[in-house]
Give the backbone structure.
Amino acid sequence: NSNGAFVYTHYSRAGYGKLQFFCDVTPTQFVEVRQAIAMLLDRASFTDTFCAGWGSVVNGPYSSAMWQYQESKDVLADNLNSYAFDVDAAGRRRLDHEREGRGLDRRRSAS
């Protein structure tokens, strides 16, 4: 500025992180397992801790600064499943999975 002081301008960071599952084999092939994992992750707390208060939670593979997210955030919020942090509900999803007879094959060795 005219006083010789610095002027601060904030720009949103165009980066993001994600948790991705390979769903063709292993326990994550079952939707109940993926849902339980989602319920065990406190996204807001994780983001706040990992980003030291500078991050935000978004739905989809976007950063909050991307135009693709800005134009579709309402559609994403309305159409994507969002799972609140809930340890008890995650345990119930696992039990539902086991009751349906789709539990992990306990005969496999851990070699």
